[in-house]
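Morning!

This is the sequence you dropped in the shared folder:
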Amino acid sequence: MNRITVRIADWHADNADLRRIREAVFVVEQEVPPELEWDADDADAVHFLAFEDEFAVGAARLLPDGRIGRVSVLKDWRGLHIGEALMQAAIAEAERRGLGRQFLTAQVYAIPFYERLGFRIDSEEFLEAGIPHVDMVRDGA
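The structure's back. C-alpha cells below.
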C-alpha cells in the first residue's frame, strides 16, 4: 500500500482538493444539495486533507466549538483506514486547542466507526439532507 498522510489544510490554498472530495462524496454520491454542503462554517474551520502520496483522497473539518464534520473519503480509497486517520488528526487538533469534548452528527450506518473512536450516541435518530443521522459526543483528554 502507498503511504497515507494527513495534514491540516488551508481553506483557500487547498480549496480545489477540499471541494473535489466533498463534492464527489456528499453532492454526487449521497445527493446532498450543494447549498447544504457549503456553508459559512468553512471559513472558520480547521480543515484536514488525507493524501495517498501526493493525491488528496479524504477530507474533514473541525469547528471552533469542537464539532467535527464533513468527514469524507473518495470511494476508491475506502477501507484503508483513511477516515480513521482523518478523525484522529481532528481529535488531536481539538485537544491541542483545549477542546476536550468533541461532537459530530453521524450518518447512522457510520455509528460503529465513531464508537470505535470513543464517541457515544447523544440523540434520537433524525433526518438531515434526507439521510438518517444521530448526534454523537466524545469526552476526551
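Headline: The radius of gyration is 14 Å.

More detail when I'm at my desk.
O.
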